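Section handout, structural biology tutorial.
Before the tutorial, make sure you can parse a SMILES string by hand: atoms, branches in parentheses, ring closures as digits. In the record below the ligand is 2-oxoglutaric acid, and the chain has 260 residues. In the tutorial you will relate the predicted structure tokens back to the input. Do not try to memorize them.
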Amino acid sequence: MVTDQHIRQYQREGYTIVPQLLGPADLSEMTEYINGYIERQTARGVRPEHLDKPHCHDRHFLDLCSKPATLDAVERFIGPNIVLFSCHIICKAKGDGLAVPWHQDAIYWPLEPMEVITLWLAIDDSTEANGCMQVIPGTHTAGPIEHVEIEHAESKVLHRGVPSHLVDASRLVNCLIPRGGCSFHAPYLIHGSAPNTSNHRRCGFTMRFMPPETRLIREGPLSKWFKDHPLFLLRGADRRGVNTYLSPRDVMSRAEQDGF
Ligand SMILES: O=C(O)CCC(=O)C(=O)O
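Predicted structure of the complex:
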């Protein structure tokens, strides 16, 4: 449950942690579906950290992102009208989980204004040993920071990141989140995570939500990625009409994909 204290911490430090978000039924449905998806995708050779935008080709992920407990929590931060911008399963296998370089999400996103929030749901207990997310509190107010090509990018989830001399790593906070809990973080917050060398898997499911007043800019330098990027209005209404949306019915179900 999100309290006023969580909202204040998010505003002040750019992140907050809610130790319990989902009840047992939602959590087991979510876990079972995500585990099945990871199994199918890794069998095709995709690394489990790279399961980006599963909702674009499997509409059950839209149901998973629309759980009332999730949307009620998000509503506390962004208000009653809620758009799903994107989602991503970032699963670090035990003993073989890639690091995520220090970065700001906002530099990858053509959103105007940059009002968007990430909910990072812990599918497994997320600990320092298995490569939990790490944040530098307070960096969310700095605006865009230079990103550079990362060395040894093949062993990282992202290829660009904030250079180390611009990150005060002595101030990092480990986001220790029990399974079923979540963190929220702001788009300019500097964050990343270490590799998973432990004996425990670390799986997170990020859901990115924005109010409908935030416009997705489909033209311009990032159009290659965002020209056809689908948005879904999950709750409330879009009174200004700055975006266009798909309906969940426009996305295939798994059975349809399998030809049933
Ligand atoms: O899962 C991680 O370790 C990093 C997550 C992240 O960068 C994000 O959700 O924006």
